[in-house]
Amino acid sequence: MNILASYKTWRKFRETYNELSRLNNRELADLGIHRGEIERVAKQAVGY
């Protein structure tokens, strides 16, 4: 993977991670996600 593609993937991961982190526990539960799973879900979303 080239540098630009790596950077774009990292940015998408950070955006996803930050968006999920902003949700409260109730909103996360509605999505079926626990706070401790945010990193895994964000990585999965971008294909890490």
TrEMBL record:
It holds the Pfam family YjiS-like. Residues 4-39 form the YjiS-like domain. This is DUF1127 domain-containing protein. It comes from Kaistia nematophila.
